[in-house]
Write a structure and sequence with these properties.
By secondary structure, the chain is mostly helical. The chain has 2 domains: 192 residues, no CATH class; 157 residues, no CATH class. The longest helix is centred in the N-terminal third of the chain and has 63 residues. It is flat and about 90 Å long. Bound molecules: protoporphyrin IX containing FE. Protoporphyrin IX containing FE binds next to helix 1, helix 7, helix 10, helix 11 and helix 12. The site of protoporphyrin IX containing FE (HEM) has 30 residues, from helix 1, helix 7, helix 10, helix 11 and helix 12.
Length: 387
């Protein structure tokens, strides 16, 4: 009996060791799986954000080269294919020749010149569709694998809905320039850019939320300040788009004076009636507002740095605040050069690209501050549960 027990224990020692190793491997895999899923979802969101950025830049180039009205129809699926024969090109050209922009701005344009503006608009629309595909296919896969928790699913579905809405807003914007005007409505252009920026913010915020590691501890005032800066950058982007849509950077090309004054008089700022129209239709008022908002943003970004310095005495929150302030400073200077040089394409595009960069810096900074204090890192860990 004794002997049998000893035998069994001698035989089972290596077996138990093997079992323990097996258990450890299994546990490590089980732990690693949600982490891999989270990383995959995060990487996907970063890719979506990058394609959104690229689409915004190509959209800016499309506007700056006055190419946005070259495709006068909205065919979400068939429009993927560009004209493939000489006859099809001629057909597209004739449709463009029928709209007021051709007659007023581009009369006498050659087919080769038309092709250039067509390619800009086609590429912008293709990138818009690409965002849909790059978003939807992996999203469906993650859903199918059960990697996406309820909260994350709701957020991602909201981003997808915003993307679909953006396609419709894009066409609504183009349609505004096809009949009575020779360019698109600045109201609609600004909504289009604002919506793109909101999609970018939501995507980046979620990607950031899925990043491992603790957020940054900070008092409520600093956290609110960081969120406030994100909101102000979004408002400034909206103002910039109204200005760009009005071609308001081609006039009042002096700085710091505007129309010969530091602050224009009310008769000039409120020349149009009713008063609210000046905020969208009076180039002087819109440009003045864009400048004013830049000054406010810059001062608040510096105060945010001072607050982080005094309250936290350094650390990652201060580094984030400094990055936002530096971004706003560079962007402001770029805006001034763009203005005094009368909006050359390269500078105007850099100004638009830098606006998205500043937004990204502000979002990452704000999210890092919120995450820790709200304990949302824990929620984030639960966002992508193991299947
Ligand atoms: C943080 C500050 C700023 C931000 C975030 C910002 C952002 C923007 C954005 C998003 C646009 C629209 C671009 C487009 O739709 O193509 C724009 C246009 C413009 N901004 Fe700014 N801007 C800032 C500061 C300034 C300053 C200080 C000036 C000059 C004093 C300025 C001058 C202009 C001009 C002239 C345009 C029209 C450019 C065009 O027609 O393409 N910006 N800005």
């Amino acid at each position: 009996m004794d002997c049998g027990r000893r035998d069994r224990s001698i035989r089972s020692a290596p077996f138990r060791r093997k079992e323990a190793v097996g258990d450890a491997i299994h546990m490590t895999r089980a732990l690693a799986r949600p982490d891999l899923q989270r990383r995959a979802i995060r990487l996907w969101l970063i890719v979506v954000g990058a394609v959104v950025c690229l689409t915004v830049l190509v959209g800016g180039a499309t506007r700056l080269t006055e190419s946005g009205l070259s495709i006068v129809e909205w065919r979400p699926v068939a429009g993927v294919l560009p004209p493939l024969s000489a006859g099809q090109w001629q057909n597209e050209f004739e449709k463009y020749q029928a709209i007021p922009q051709y007659r007023t701005l581009n009369a006498g344009m050659t087919l080769a010149q038309f092709k250039t503006i067509y390619w800009w608009e086609w590429t912008h629309r293709l990138l818009g569709r690409l965002i849909g595909v790059v978003f939807l296919l992996p999203f469906l896969y993650f859903l199918w694998r059960g990697w996406v928790g309820r909260r994350l699913r709701a957020g991602l579905a909201a981003i997808f809905a915003l993307g679909a809405l953006q396609g419709a807003v894009g066409w609504w914007m183009v349609a505004s320039g096809l009949a009575d005007r020779i360019e698109v409505s600045q109201y609609r252009l600004a909504i289009h850019l604002l919506l793109a920026s909101l999609i970018f913010v939501a995507t980046l915020w979620m990607a950031q939320r899925l990043k491992p590691g603790a957020g940054i501890e900070a008092p409520a005032r600093i956290r609110a300040g960081a969120i406030g800066l994100v909101v102000l950058v979004l408002m400034q982007i909206h103002l910039g788009a109204v200005l760009a849509g009005l071609r308001g950077g081609l006039v009042y090309n002096t700085w710091p004076l505007i129309d010969g004054e530091l602050i224009p008089g009310p008769h000039a700022l409120f020349r149009l009636g009713p008063a609210w129209r000046n905020f969208f239709e009076n180039a002087l008022t819109v440009q003045f507002d864009h400048r004013l908002m830049a000054y406010v943003l810059w001062v608040l970004a510096l105060l945010h740095v001072l607050d982080a310095t005094w309250t936290l005495r350094g650390g990652p929150a201060l580094a984030g605040a400094l990055a936002v302030a530096a971004g706003v400073t560079v962007q402001g200077m770029l805006g001034i050069v763009t203005l005094v040089q009368q909006v050359p394409i390269a500078l105007a595009l850099s100004h638009q690209g830098m606006a998205i960069a500043v937004l990204a810096i502000a979002v990452v900074h704000a999210e890092r501050l919120q995450a820790r204090s709200l304990g949302l890192r824990l929620v984030a860990a639960r966002l992508a549960p193991s299947s």
